[in-house]
Amino acid sequence: MISKKSLIFATGLTLSAIGLTACGNNEQAQNSHASSLEQIKQNDVIRVAVFADNPPFGYIDSEGKNQGFDIAVAKHVAKDLLGDENKIEYVVTEAANRVEFLKSNKVDVVFASFSVTPERIEVVDFAEPYLKASLGIASPKKSPINSVKDLENKTLIVNKDSSSDSYFSKNYPKIKLLKFEQNTDAFNALKDGRGDAISQDSTYALAWAAQNPDYVVGIPQIGNEDFIAPAVKKGNVELLNWLNTEIKHLRETGEIQKIYDETLKPLYGEKVDSQIFLDVDGK
User: What's this model's pTM, rounded to 2 decimal places?
Assistant: First the structure.
């Protein structure tokens, strides 16, 4: 006859075993979506975090297709890795979600105007860069912001957890920041007069002002130059090494320059030297 104590003990062991099995299954399920190079090849698709409202770098066109500079680079990656540029699962992200999407294995790689910063290097691994940019500030042409001093007692619009957010929070804490998750909301706030200026990567600020003639980039460069690169989950060495080789190849063969000419040059025109953004070899 089994005592009550023995029954409790046996039940406890059974529940523990069930718990371990469940944990094991969860771990296996998570690992089945891990972002290793071999897993991507087995799945025959690469999951890429991209912006949907950040033209000309990542956006959805009128036909519902992903377009932009970052998208074009990602397509080259898919073609060279899987043999087909269409073997991409686009996962729309906001600036604040990019790190978390990698940590949770929701995506394999981020191609979303991701600037390399000391803080981000601590939590994700960046591959070779394909662009460089500083921060720029756009404002209405009728009341331009031409210096940081002009921002005193003014409201500056930024994207939450962006390079602009970090830079101004750290270096100019007295400047009032109005933060948004999405680029569309941020620029609508500027147009509606809820802020006096907006800070974005200079590449994007210049492109946006070119399409919105009532606005000007009064400060085309502020802060340190940042490199923009793909990012993978921390410790995903195999995929990181492959991406390093791939991005170097795309730079050296002139493919990055071609992508610039197709996606960015029509906006920047001849007045902007492409090497301002593409000269990343001396990083």
Answer: 0.72
